[in-house]
Amino acid sequence: xxxxxxxxxxxxxxxxxxxxxxxxxxxxxxxxxxxxxxxxxxxxxxxxxxxxxxxxxxxxxxxxxxxxxxxxxxxxxx
Length: 78
Known about the structure:
4-stranded antiparallel beta sheet; mainly beta; 65% strand; ATP Synthase, domain 1; globular
């Protein structure tokens, strides 16, 4: 699945991942391949992502919005 993490200033990450964990306002949640479509607001915390068997990566955020649709996870942060 494709993960895109963008801010008003730059594209922070764009690439293929097997999983991503996001800090939702109702609690953290993990998105895997073929996840149902959703839109969620995000709280301050870390976006964690990676591929099975590879190193875990984290990006701290102050908040934002996530959109999951057809194996594309788009995250707009502030």
